[in-house]
Amino acid sequence: MNRVNVLNKQLNLTYNHTRAANQTALDATLLIDLTNKLLGSYGFGSGDCKLKYNYVYGGLRTFEPCYEFTKNFWDKTVSQRILDGGLKLLCKG
Question: Of the candidates 56, 78, 47, which has an alpha carbon nearest to the alpha carbon of residue 65?
Fold first, then answer.
């Protein structure tokens, strides 16, 4: 993993290569602030490309819209943490 600063924001880059499966992937995470993240991934060879935005509201709710370019498909995830029991509710759509 490599970390660089872009416009005073932390950008994490991860490069993976699996020799047995002959697959290579690049993942990037841009930390905008404590509640906002932008994530991207690209699979070389397969052309699989995803872009995801992560927003945490009030430290309890997380909203994650995700777009898959190869499938032309939107995916949305909303989760809610319940502090007493440590449970996490998840709603995907």
Answer: 78
The answer to whether the CB of 79 falls within 8 A of the CB of 89 is yes
Which two tokens mark 89?
Answer: 């509710």
For residue range 49-58, what is the model confidence (pLDDT) as tens digits?
A: 999 999 999 8
- Classify the phi-psi angles of 7: left when phi > 0, otherwise alpha if psi is within -120 to 50, otherwise beta: left
Q: What are phi and psi of 63, to 5 degrees?
A: -115, 130
Separation CA 16–CA 93 (nearest Å)? 29
Q: How far apart are CA 23 and CA 57, in angstroms?
A: 36
Rounded Cα–Cα distance for residues 91 and 89 (Å):
7
* Rounded Cα–Cα distance for residues 59 and 80 (Å): 9
Q: Where are the domains of the chain?
A: 2-92
Work out the mean pLDDT of the chain and round it to a whole number: 86
